[in-house]
Design brief:
This protein is an alpha+beta fold. 29% of the residues lie in helices and 25% in strands. The protein has 13 helices and 20 strands. Strand 17 and strand 18 (349-354) form a beta hairpin.
Length: 504
């Protein structure tokens, strides 16, 4: 009998599993595909307060998100780091004085300690002004953070498993019924078709864009889907557009926001769109109109025009927003809503609607607060000051970590050491352990991806496929060619491993 069964292996589901396991609860998490295979790997890769949400007067959401930025930065400084954003000013925006007021609120609403504050800038003399058209002569600069979103999910799952949670990937909850004081669940392994029965005292529905489908399956409610508004957000990746490390936030004539962000050293990430979506979220893909929209949006600001032919990669995700009815997609709230389902005496179902990557940890605490009466022996909150795996070093200590790893393993190319440190933090030392020659890392698949790292991803991070490894655990899919990808696929197929949950 599990205390808690979590359905969904996105950031909210893995965050809840981690929090609950750390409080001494027995936890089962079931994800029908790979961890972060849905919305949680298709974000704009930001831990941010949401500057534009101030325009919609969502002060509580902004305050909560701003306070979470530095909590997460301290917890995982290898996959989260500070990023400065440049907002070019022009006549189509609000008056400069009003923007300054908004940025002052943004600086002070969330208790900022680490990140530098906002400032006005002269774009004619700043490096960030060089790529911009000449009509943009003044602007503003403020702080938020970058995050490797899919790795954030995996690290939460890894920490949950290390604390006793049972994490099952590619496992679908095909049936769930209330049986007296507990839920009876039927789980199907999608690789083998094998079904097993499990029991849990309560269930958390963290199905993301499938939250309505899961709710309907569990409660037989025909009105379940009406509580979810699906909004597709798409992004494009192009070759690097400028040399400096700042990001840009552009506001367009339709009032939408588009970001331009340095990405994986050699690229620029541009997004996002906001389009109402119908259909299976797994089939979400960028349209030609969205590609053209993003290219045109940033070309209105940069000296160099971006064309659809410049795009080297795209991705799309579907946000499961709480349906408040009406309004444009970009104006729908990104706040989360938690709803309890169950009559007195019945086992409880808690449904999670909406949410942001930035607020996932706080959301998990709120979930535990709501289900606390059914878990009387659970320990108090603990995640606010606990590092995620690999994050056991100071916020400003990344370069020192890289230097230590390079000194211990001089045979490993500096670029490989740095990338491993970025992906795994202090855990990179475990991957490199005993390496005295480059051959010790095993087969080289390309772009600095070696067999030793792939073994780690399979045995410790639930990776099963080429896509898991190249697009979620790493972003090396941008660098490996077709032949190198096939070599990796052949290696995975040849392994005689028991591909079940990694050892806790």
């Amino acid at each position: 009998m599990f205390d808690l069964a979590v359905i969904g292996g996105g950031v909210n589901g893995c965050g809840v599993a981690r929090d609950a396991a750390g409080r001494g609860c027995s936890v089962l998490l079931a994800e029908q595909n790979d961890l972060a295979s849905g919305t949680s790997s298709a974000s704009t890769k930001l831990v941010h307060g949401g500057l534009r949400y101030l325009e919609h007067y969502e002060f509580r959401l902004v305050r909560e998100a701003l306070s979470e930025r530095e909590v997460l930065l301290r917890a995982a400084p290898h996959i989260i780091w500070p990023l400065r954003f440049v907002l070019p000013h022009h006549r189509g925006l609000r008056p400069a004085a009003l923007i300054r007021l908004g940025l002052w609120l943004y600086d002070h609403l969330g208790g900022r300690e680490i990140l530098p504050g906002s400032r006005g800038i002269d774009l004619t003399s700043e490096p960030s002004g060089v790529p911009l058209r000449s009509e943009f002569s003044r602007g503003f600069e403020y702080s938020d953070c970058w995050v490797d979103d899919a790795r954030l999910v995996v690290l939460n799952a890894r920490d949950a498993a290390d604390r006793g949670a049972d994490i099952r990937v590619r496992t679908e909850v095909v049936a769930a019924t209330r049986s007296g004081d507990h839920w009876s669940l039927v789980l199907e392994d999608k690789a083998t078709g094998q079904r097993v029965a499990e029991k849990a005292r309560l269930v958390v529905n963290a199905g993301g864009p499938w939250v309505g489908e899961v709710l309907k399956r569990l409660t037989r409610s025909s009105a379940a889907s009406s509580r979810v508004r699906l909004v597709k957000g798409s992004h494009i990746v192009v070759p690097r557009l400028y040399e400096h490390e700042r990001a840009y936030i552009f506001q367009n004539a339709d009032r939408r926001i588009v970001f331009s962000i340095p990405y994986e050293a050699d690229f620029t990430l541009i997004g996002t769109t906001d389009v109402d979506y119908a259909g299976d979220p797994a089939d979400a893909a960028i349209s030609a109109d969205e590609v053209a929209y993003l290219c045109n949006a940033v070309s209105a600001y940069f000296k160099t025009s971006i064309r659809p032919a410049d795009v080297v990669w795209t991705y799309s995700g579907v946000r499961p927003l709480y349906n408040e009815g009406g309004g444009a997609a970009q104006e729908a709230t990104r706040d989360y809503v938690l709803e309890l389902d169950g009559r007195p005496g019945e086992p409880v179902l808690l449904n999670i609607f909406g949410g942001k990557i930035t607020t996932y940890r706080h959301l998990a605490e709120e979930v535990m607060k709501r289900i606390g009466p059914w878990l009387p022996s659970a320990s108090p909150p603990w995640t606010a000051r606990a590092p995620l795996p690999g994050g056991e070093f100071p916020v400003r200590g990344f370069d020192d970590l890289v230097a230590r790893l390079s000194q211990r393993h001089p045979a490993v190319p500096a670029g490989v050491v740095r990338r491993l440190a970025r992906c795994y933090g202090t855990v990179a030392g475990e991957i490199l352990s005993g390496t005295t020659a480059i051959e010790d890392l095993g087969q080289h698949f390309g772009a600095g991806l070696y067999e030793r790292e792939v073994v780690h991803l399979v045995e410790r991070e639930w990776a099963r496929t080429v896509e898991d490894i190249l697009w979620r655990r790493t972003k090396l899919g941008l660098r490996l060619d077709a032949g190198e990808r096939q070599r990796l696929a052949d290696w995975l197929a040849a392994q005689d491993r028991q591909l079940t949950s990694p050892a806790a």
